[in-house]
Write a structure and sequence with these properties.
This protein is of the alpha+beta class. It folds into two domains: 172 residues, Probable tRNA modification gtpase trme, domain 1 (Gyrase A, domain 2, 2-Layer Sandwich); 74 residues, Elongation Factor Tu (Ef-tu), domain 3. The chain contains seven helices and 17 strands. The strands form three sheets. Strands 8-9-10-7-1-11 form a six-stranded mixed sheet. Strand 3 and strand 4 form a beta hairpin.
Length: 299
């Protein structure tokens, strides 16, 4: 069941950035406008290489006057190390708070009312020493929570939410076409705009310079997007991430994460067009794939 449930995400960690230079420090590094993040507003942002390639992405919200980053737990040490490299003389403190703070997903738009949140992506509020917020990428996926570990179940339970089915949440994510960090984006290779970061509120085009901004802007304004990460329906065994997708004898893309007949694949748009115009099929391993364009996607 999805409605009225929450799913703890042990694969997520929390970094805390505090100090008088916090916003200025992050503003010059990440793809979104950190000035918009507050106790009632979360953003989704990415840290890129100087060449505009993906390194990390995370959700940012203010809790107790500090910015909290909901990030990949397994890669948080790398993120922390990279942030420290840029710190220089900035008056900021960087802390790994994963031991004391937990992250949960509260899937589905119906859960937003239970949390007292409106439908706008990123809308948030304080709760039990932490925060809850509508997923800033897409409200249809539901909300997220960053809460003290000992408060997660009591606080969400008080809202009428019970532990739910992780598989159901994963199916919803795949159906909506939302990438899950380095499971779906290749570190130091992926480009944000091939993976929905423009439509999913992960890039601010007016904020000014940040690391990798030049290539990201050039990609957008010169129309250089030739591939897109798309949901696919899988007929057959789920292909492993990295499996080549083919159209006839031609290479058409590459699989990313998959589960229960759904998946994400980075597909070359010329073959998506050919599939619509000429028919045929996409294949990955022993499976056939059918692209399923989500409503938010602009091609």
């Amino acid at each position: 069941m999805i409605e009225r449930s929450y799913v703890e995400l042990p694969e997520r960690g929390v970094l805390v950035v505090s100090g008088p230079d916090t916003r200025a420090f992050l503003q010059g590094l990440v793809s979104n406008d950190v000035m918009r993040a507050g106790p009632d507003r979360a953003i989704h942002a990415a840290l890129l290489t100087a060449q505009g390639r993906y390194l990390h992405d995370f959700f940012v919200i203010e809790i107790a006057d500090s910015l909290h980053l909901d990030c990949e737990a397994a890669r948080r040490e790398d993120l922390l190390k990279r942030l420290k490299l840029y710190k220089l003389r900035s008056k900021v403190t960087l802390e790994d708070a994963t031991d004391r703070l937990a992250v949960a997903a509260i899937p589905g738009e119906a859960a937003l009312a239970a949390l007292g949140l409106g439908p706008e992506p990123g809308a948030g509020k304080a709760m039990a020493g932490g925060a809850v917020f509508v997923d800033p990428r897409l409200a249809a996926i539901g909300a997220r929570a960053i809460l003290p570990r000992d408060q997660l179940a009591p606080a969400l339970g008080a809202c009428g939410l019970q532990p739910g089915d992780r598989a159901a949440y994963e199916s919803l994510r795949l159906k909506l076409g939302l990438p899950d960090g380095s499971r779906d984006l290749e570190v130091e290779r992926s480009i944000l705009l091939e993976n929905g970061f423009d439509e999913l509120n992960g890039v601010d085009w007016k904020k000014g310079c940040y690391v990798g901004q030049e290539l990201t802007a050039r990609t957008k304004y010169r129309g250089l997007i030739k591939k897109r990460l798309l949901p696919v329906l899988i007929d057959g065994p789920a292909p492993a991430p990295g499996t080549t997708v083919t159209y006839g004898e031609q290479e058409a893309g590459e699989m990313r994460s998959a589960a229960d007949g759904l998946g994400l694949a980075l597909l070359r748009l010329e073959f998506v067009d050919k599939l619509e115009a000429e028919g045929g099929a996409l294949a990955a391993g022993a499976a056939k794939l059918t692209p399923a364009k989500p409503d938010w996607l602009r091609l």
